[in-house]
Design brief:
The chain is an all-alpha fold. The chain has helices at 4-10, 14-19, 36-50, 54-68, 73-91, 107-117, 128-146, 151-161. The radius of gyration is 15 Å and the shape is globular.
Length: 162
């Protein structure tokens, strides 16, 4: 089986990989939806194991994905699913060498916070998407917190404080 993450890198389609677009779609067994965890747990995990140099490549691609997010329900779904999958795998030491989210001040942590709270026109917390997806956001935030990182949970609490 070809590594889809490596293929996405060669064609500059890592954002499509993280979104499950094109040939990067991996169907869940129960629903007709993309399985983000399978992409990260399979293709990314094996990509990281292939070389010590690959962790930085993955980290850069994940940051690029976070930077590309738009204020849509679809992108919010990809955001939550990829973060949950990332932290579940990271907590199980399955993402060798990745240094993402080591500190609240890291670029990727700031991107997560910015995606949800930035006071610009692309501020997801000021849209009805936030209100309709708030319960799902908290489910993911609590899951991520149990897997060792509170960035999403703390950001949601800040938003709700107003």
């Amino acid at each position: 089986m070809n590594n889809l993450f490596a293929a996405a890198l060669k064609t500059n389609e890592t954002n499509s990989f993280f979104r499950g677009e094109k040939n990067y779609f991996v169907r869940t067994t129960d629903f007709d939806q993309h399985n983000h965890g399978a992409n990260l747990g399979g293709h990314v995990e094996s990509f990281l194991k292939a070389s010590n140099d690959n962790a930085e490549v993955f980290d850069d691609a994940f940051i690029k994905f976070l930077e590309s997010l738009e204020v849509t329900k679809e992108d919010l779904t990809h955001f939550m699913a990829n973060l949950s999958a990332f932290f579940a795998l990271k907590n199980r030491d399955r993402l060798e060498g990745s240094t993402l989210f080591r500190s609240p001040g890291s670029n990727e942590s700031k991107l997560v916070k910015s995606y949800l709270t930035n006071i610009s026109n692309t501020n997801i917390s000021n849209t009805n998407i936030y209100l309709t997806e708030k319960d799902r956001l908290y489910i993911h935030a609590n899951f991520i917190s149990k897997n060792g990182n509170d960035i999403l949970l703390n950001t949601l609490k800040e938003i709700d404080k107003g």
